[in-house]
Amino acid sequence: SEEMYGFEIMGSDKSTSEALLIKTAIAVLSDLGYKDLYVGINSIGDRESISKYEREFNLYLRKNSGEINSKLRNDLKKNPQAIIKHTSPETESFRENIPQTIASLSDASRAHFKEVLEYVEAFNVNYSIMPTLLANKMYASHTIFEIFESTKKGEIGNLLAHGYRYNYLSKKS
User: Fold this and answer.
1) Cα 39 to Cα 24: distance, rounded to the nearest angstrom
2) What three-state secondary structure class fits 138?
């Protein structure tokens, strides 16, 4: 049987909150016997950062949509960010130049993300920034992460955990 855990920290806007969630997830996975853990991480920032990114992303789509086929263009009208996770070879050059969320971070969001990365580095866990990690802007903000077990070949294995900050969900009530 599969075990599921959920961890939440409420009321804190500090970068240590995300770092603590990542560290807790790593500790639980290690206790369950997983080794060679790998963290993929990204940031969408605060509302200002998210708005700036959406403007840049939509401008990029308008300027470059001729590079992709009409079926995919129609799919993008429903969900523009679906192209980020699209893996077909025909969209590779288009995807390579898509604006990244971290380039749109406000100064405060950039500082927040830098602190989270410093904590992750202190955990001595392999990590990399994964620009394709996104979360729903209606409730998510700042850090998004996924934790994988590395394969024997040093590649990313199965997804074991994921998380994100969801400040805006708690503020809606």
Assistant:
1) 13
2) coil
Round to whole Å and give the CA distance between 116 and 122.
Answer: 10
In this prediction, what percent of the chain has a pLDDT beyond 70? 90
**Nearest by Cα to 17 from 156, 160, 143:** 143
In three-state secondary structure terms, 47 is helix
Q: How many CB atoms lie within 10 A of CB 63?
A: 9
In 89-140 the beta strands, taken as DSSP E runs, fall at: 126-129
Cβ atoms of residues 74 and 113 within 8 Å: no
Q: Write the CB contacts of 54 (distance below 8 Å, at least 6 apart in sequence).
A: 137
The whole-model pTM stands at 0.83
Residue with the two structure tokens 């853990």: 37
